[in-house]
Every structure is written in structure tokens, then in C-alpha cells.
Predict the structure.
Amino acid sequence: MMRRLVFGLGLLSATMLSHGAFAEGAQTLSIIVSKNQQQMVVYDGDKVVATTRVSTGKPGHGTPSGIFSIIQKEKYHESNIYSNAPMPWMQRITWSGIALHEGVVPNHPASHGCVRMPGAFARSLYQMTENGAHVIIADTSIVPEKIDDALLFAPRKPLPSGPMMTDTELRTSSIKRTTADGSKPVEVAMNVSPDNPVAHGSDAPSATVAPSTGISPDASGASTTDIKPAALRILITRRGDRENLMDAQKLLEDMGFETGGQDGYMGPLTRSAITGFKRWKGLSEKGALMSEEFVAALYDAAGKPRPPAGQIMVRRGFQPLFEAAVGIKDPDMALGTHLLTADHIDRDGETAEWHAMTLPNTLSDDAKRRLGITIDNDATGAEAARAAFDRIDVPADIRDRIETMMGDGTSVTINDEGVGPETGQGTDFITVTNDGPQVAEANIENVSDTVSDAPAKPRRVRHAPKLGVGLY
């Protein structure tokens, strides 16, 4: 209640409160935009903090639907696409040009893809949020619902700082790239190499140690739990071509082939290694390099079972931390697209409050064939999210690692289609959905731009006055 009151004061008196006043609650905010209602609702957990009318993309310049997060904020920004159009209180959600910002808000979709908000609300929202706040955009209204499930991640007390086995030599996952002095940089406890395409040019160092829990020792050297761990961003999805190639690269290297790195990239050395293996085993070199015949022979030669169907990836502060294979029960059934967020984390009590949302997402027939999906999952709401999470078999060591690191605002995205093209350096995991045709003209029945303990009674709004901004 106190946090909602603070948010309310921020909206009603935005000029009087600084951004820091919202720092604690900013980690757990969810901003939900429904395109059919041309409405934005800001939630803290499942409680409504604020609502406003908005204007999303017009036909031909549609606003994408999906799960996003704020990745950049500027009090005043000018479009580099549309004649330097002013975009005050800009909060970017994709590097390809979609943002929330102040602009003209008529009674229908009118932007070039951005989400426009009335000026006073745009300023107040800007002061409430931090980078990483979730933004969910869908054709229909979506409401977060509280869920309880024993299988959900639960926070644990952090492990002691420093090495736990000082006399044990760490085993590296790979050794790559001989440097000028003859030494070879290594990658430790991380499955994402610096030149992984998913990192999109990440400048992460070649040698990486396991990330900390976010709990640091104080000046006296004693560990303290007063420092709150940062939120994790977790994606659970199906293993795709990239993950399968990374596994193949590791197996080939274990057999003495040079692949150039376990990076999921089909470079010249990897191509040469696959071709060499095929010649060794007398396999056909025609057709796809990663043919089913090749993969089966590779695992047979390595004496290892095929990996499970799923993959879990973890980021923090827009940077990759680690990833691993996970099992998926009934892999021929679609997982659906869901967002689960954690709040009220009590590390001493090892409890957390989870909320869930399910987004409509239509998979094409080609996508279903490629992913091996033969059964649709048409459930909706929190029950669908819970059912999808319960089908994931997370290894115990990965679960332990997540639970000792997770902080307020930690989220889990579940989807079938893997890492989308909008996910890259300087982003959380972005999932773009296909939930039907763009809304051409909405019959708007909306609520006011103020704080609300519950959704207010709908009322028809008049056309907003022209502000001379928001061409984007």
C-alpha cells in the first residue's frame, strides 16, 4: 500500500519528486499496452498503479506486440527517422526504433510505431521507471495474475563470497584463440562466447568468471544481505539451430577437430570440421551440413545421449550470464508465450511472490514443423503460464544458481521460438509475438491519466489537444 501511495504521489506531483523516489518500486513495475483499447496500464505486481490513453502505430506503421523492456531513457529525443520529430520523455524498448514518449494522442492509432502518451503522464512515467522495466504490448487487454507453484524459483540465502574450493583446479569449458604471446584465453563457467551472434557485438572479455550473487561484503569484509541483488532476466525456450551447433562444435573439439569456437556460428573452421567428420565416418557430404544423419553419428561416436529439447538463458543488466539445456515434457505440445515476474523477495524466509501473464502468439505452420509442434496449447491466463513452467525440467545446479542470485523484478519469459532478432547487446530478452492483424481503428473507451487502486469505470475520451510533437 505504501509503495502504491508513493507511485500515486509521483503521478499527481511529478515535478516535485525525483527519479530516486521510485528506485525501489521501479524494479517491479510492468507497463501493459492494449492496442485494441489504446490504453496503457501500469502495474506493481497485480495492483493497478496508473492508467492512461495512448496512441499506437497506424496501418502501415504498426506497433509490434510482445514482451519488451526499457533499454534507454532520454528526457528529450529527436527521431533520426522522421525529420527530427521531437520525442520528449523518450523510453526506448527496441534498438530498431520503438519507444514510449510524449505525443499527440487522438482517439485512434496514429503513430509511426511508437506508443504516444499525454505529456504530463509521459513525464511522470519517466520518473517512475528505470532501465529494465517490462513493457508488454498486445492486441487485447492483459492482466497479471498472482500464481503459487512449488516449482517456481524461490530465493535462497547467498553462498559465501570467494572460492569455495581453493585447492581445486577449475575445469574450463573451452580454450580458444592463441594470442601473440602464445597464451590462450579461456572461458570459465559461461556458455556464451564473446563472438556469439546472440551477443550482437558484445565486448565481453574472453576470460569470464562465474557471476556473483549480487551480495557483496561490506567495508569490514563481512557479508551483508542489505545489498539487494539485481533482477535476473531468464528465457526458457526450445533448443534451436544455434544451440544444436554449439553442442556439435563441443563434441567435434573433444574428438580433436578445430571448429574455431563453441559459438553457434557456422564459420569456415566449423564447416571444415563437419566435412572432415563426415569423411571419417563415410557419411554423405551432400545436403545440409547439420543433417540428421550427421548429428546421430556424432553423438554415437562421442558416446553421449542427445541433449534435451529446451534451453534456459540468463541475463543481468542487459548482459548474458550463462545458459544450459533443460528438459521439456511433451515437447510436441506448444509451450505458448508467457511472462512470470517475481516480487516481495524474502531471502531470509526464502519466499517470493510471482505474477504471470500469457500473450496470444500465433505460430505459422512452417514454424510448428520446424519446432516439432503438433499440439497447440490454447490455455490462457496464469493457469497456462503455470502449466508451461511445470513442463520445464531445470537441472538442480542451474536452479541453485538462479535462486541464490535472483532479486526483486526477476522475470522468466517462456516461448517456443527462441531468441528473437530484437534481442542483442544492451537488451533483455525480447519476444515479438504475432497475435493477429494490426488494429486499424479502435473504439476507445478509456480511463483517465491518474492513479487508480482499481480500473476506473470506462469513459469515452475526447481528442487530445495537439501538442506539436509525436510525429514518430
In short: The longest helix spans residues 241-254. Confidence is low (pLDDT under 50) at residues 6-23, 164-181, 183-225, 437-472. The CA atoms of residues 423 and 429 lie 5 Å apart.
